[in-house]
Amino acid sequence: MFGASDLLRSINGPTEADKPMIIELAVAAMEELFRMAQMGEPLWLPSLDGTTTELSEDEYIRSFPRGIGPKPAGFKCEASRETAVVIMNHISLVEILMDVNQWSTVFSGIVSRAMTLEVLSTGVAGNYNGAFQVMTAEFQVPSPLVPTRESYFVRYCKQHADGTWAVVDVSLDNLRPSPVVRCRRRPSGCLIQEMPNGYSKVTWVEHVEVDDRGVHNIYKQLVNSGLAFGAKRWVATLDRQCERLASAMATNIPTGEVGVITSQEGRKSMLKLAERMVISFCAGVSASTAHTWTTLSGSGADDVRVMTRKSVDDPGRPPGIVLSAATSFWLPVPPKRVFDFLRDENSRSEWDILSNGGVVQEMAHIANGQDTGNCVSLLRVNSANSSQSNMLILQESCTDSTASFVIYAPVDVVAMNMVLNGGDPDYVALLPSGFAILPDGTTAHGGVIGEVGSGGSLLTVAFQILVDSVPTAKLSLGSVATVNNLIACTVDRIKAAVSCENA
């Protein structure tokens, strides 16, 4: 699922000679993480508005003189720290962080690709205490206007004497064959403390040095605020995903409400299918090195970017040529309002050109979080044209304080019935389209989405359309123009609808 680019593939695991040095670096990083997570002033200073803390770079260099060497010229330091209590036990959290497949699934909005190159130690029998692994990952913002950040690092997990678990990453760029390093991870990671009733207290530290000159102007403020790649985004994502997992396990679903899926197997299958849809959407929307976007003419930020891919022998995707198109733009409306407008089936006909003005009805839904915006739903489009009546839309909407998504895909009625009866969701062909809604980073309070009337939104609109069901066919200019036109019209409709609500 996570297709590694040639760059990721060209990186081999470390040589035998390098291993003792890697372990020494990781052990020092673990000590640094502990101090970074626990120290207050003068290392961490309150921000001007008092809502967050900021790292004093001078104090950092004084406190941690060794580390991975001085900051490269032209790089910027991004450091942040965030604490939260999440609904998951510490053992499961450690497992999510140490198993690359679980990690990249839970954080699919931030991690576009990841792989473990080599496990240097699996840790003590039965748990990850003392485990070391060399990894490579690509971090993203869901927009083609923000370059992804590739990182080659060692991850080390340790349980401390007081019972606290910690997982730390530190870059191994000096061992790396590639001369182009745009992002270095200084010791970053999290401390996990066990709490009563299966909860955990997580303290997250993100500390990177990055060349961010490729970030488009409209995203600069968001990236600088730390909401794009910083600790707050990781913790908000983790918190939301823990709620999602808890609701997937729930057995006490109230019956009687129309459309609520109560069968445990049906819920599990539908959530698994929706999860795959979200991962596929997120992996296909960023400016990853794994795929090349072609820019169609447009006006600066409003450019539409397109790419094609051939889909062959993948049971989870329809066969043929798939055209992806995406664009990102700013809206003078708070993210919450944009999110509520896009996820509501009653306003869908205002922007969804492909539903042809048909009435959209919610047939079924699964709530998966405290916020009513976090849910998976099955929609039916009752189009005036009766030949399309066998089409359903699977939609997942999710929101937290740093990002919101509305992601959907047309699904076949027969396949969906199978899933609702607990069938294997991996064989349902999906082509997800949808929206990523981010704060623009201008609010005084760090751009929390829940605050009404705060800041504007950065909206990414992305479509995937099967333009030919024969994988060997040539892409026609006509189909590119059609998709370009589809995006342009959708964007215009959304702008008109939310700005008139705003008036």
Number of helix segments?
A: 11
Low-confidence stretches: 1-7, 444-453
Number of strands: 19
Estimate the global geometry from the Cα principal axes.
Answer: globular
Observed structural traits:
503 residues; 11 helices; alpha+beta; globular; eight-stranded antiparallel beta sheet; nine-stranded antiparallel beta sheet; 27% helix
Summarize this entry quickly.
The chain is an alpha+beta fold and 503 residues long. The chain has helices at 6-10, 19-38, 57-63, 90-98, 100-106, 217-224, 231-249, 264-283, 335-343, 413-420, 477-502, and strands at residues 44-46, 53-55, 76-86, 111-122, 131-139, 149-159, 165-171, 183-185, 188-194, 200-210, 294-296, 304-311, 320-331, 359-367, 375-382, 391-399, 404-412, 433-439, 457-468. Helices cover 27% and strands 31% of the residues.
